[in-house]
Each structure stands twice: as C-alpha cells, then as structure tokens.
Amino acid sequence: MNTMKTIHVMHVHPAMSAGLAALLQSKEWLVTLHAEQPESMAGADVVVTDYDTGLELARTSAGRGRGQEVLVVTNRDKEWDVRRALEVCVGGYLLEDTSAAQLQHAVRYVLTGSRYLCPTVVERIRDGLPGDRLTNRESDVLQLLAKGHCNKRIARDLGIEVGTVKWHLRSLMTKLGASARTQAVVLAAQRGLVGIDMPA
C-alpha cells in the first residue's frame, strides 16, 4: 500500500509556484503543481500556497472538517496578517525568502498536525510591541478604534460599559506609547497590529 504523502503547490505567482515545487523535491513525498495537475489538490495532504488563497483554503477545509493542511508562503510579515492566518488555522506560515531546508522542515512539521511559524515571523510577533503585550480585549478595542468607532459604539459592539472602554483605551495607548487615539491607530498599523492601509 502506497502511503506517500502528496504536497500540492498552487501559489498565485507562477514563477513562485515553480520555485517552491523545485525546492520541495524529495523522496519523502510526491509534489504536484496546480498549473499542471489541478485535480491533485483535492487529495493533497498539504497545499503550499499564497496568503489570500491559503486563508480561503483553510476556512473551507475547516468548514468541511477536512484534514488537509495549508502552508502559506508570503511576503506579508505584519503581526496583523499572521494573526488573521492563525485565526483560520493555517498549518504553517513562511516568508518568501525561505530556504529549501526550512520549507521542507515546515512541510514535515505540518504533516504531523503541528503548526509551523518561521523564526522570522515568530521574532517579529514577539517584538511587535516595545512594552507589555495587548490583552485580547485591548486588541478588540483597538480594532474597532481603527474603524473610527466612538467609545459608545465600541462599548455596544463589545457588550461592555463605556467606562470599561476608556480604561482599555488608556491601557493600550500607554503600551503603544501614544498620546492620542489617532496616534494609537497609526502606531498600531505601523507595527502590523491593525489592518488599515498606511501611506508609503
């Protein structure tokens, strides 16, 4: 009985797909390329793909209860982007400058059912804030603040008191080193904690 695992590569950029497929060549598994064998994706054990495709596949896989793992290879290294990927349970997260050894190591890791984050991403998440980490509730408040919501709206959306919102705001502004609401959002965006478009 053939128990060889299948790794399917379907990055949005054809050149990246070809490069990843070449780096993944190994006697340990079978590598298929979406451009040549799109039908192979359905039965693949791991799908190596880009950020947006990876998040969509992870959501679909989780919704259907499938055991297929998704390994994202991207240049998006902001904490906000990584958090979004982790929330939909991607199996692994690598940056595009990954080496063949690291890519193969990540595949072996996710094949065991464990989650893999490349060291660079782990380091950037760890260093995302100069001081204390934001709590989950502070992060919730920050996300709504970034959308331009007032304290009353934030309180209503989160089901908490306005006074509690103000307390969380003071705390997160202190941690971010901000003296105003707008500055807090800008600093958070620069560090990748909120997903807003920042000027170059």
How is this structure best described in words?
- There is one protein chain.
- The protein is of the alpha/beta class and 200 residues long.
- The chain has two domains: 5-125, Response regulator (Rossmann fold, 3-Layer(aba) Sandwich); 136-190, Orthogonal Bundle (Arc Repressor Mutant, subunit A), CATH 1.10.10.
- The chain has helices at 14-24, 51-64, 79-87, 100-111, 119-126, 136-146, 151-158, 162-176, 181-190, and strands spanning 5-9, 29-33, 46-49, 69-74, 92-95, 116-117.
- A six-stranded parallel sheet has the order 2-1-3-4-5-6, sandwiched between helices.
- β4 (69-74), α3 and β5 (92-95) form a beta-alpha-beta unit.
- α6 (136-146) crosses α8 (162-176).
- The longest helix is centred in the C-terminal third of the chain and has 15 residues, at 162-176.
- The mean pLDDT is 86.
Tags for this model:
200 residues, alpha/beta, Rossmann fold, Arc Repressor Mutant, subunit A, 2 domains, 6-stranded parallel sheet, 9 helices, 6 strands, 13% strand, elongated
Give the helices and strands, then pairings.
Layout: E1 5-9, H1 14-24, E2 29-33, E3 46-49, H2 51-64, E4 69-74, H3 79-87, E5 92-95, H4 100-111, E6 116-117, H5 119-126, H6 136-146, H7 151-158, H8 162-176, H9 181-190
Parallel strand pairs: 1-2, 1-3, 3-4, 4-5, 5-6
Helix pairs in contact: 6-8, 7-8, 8-9
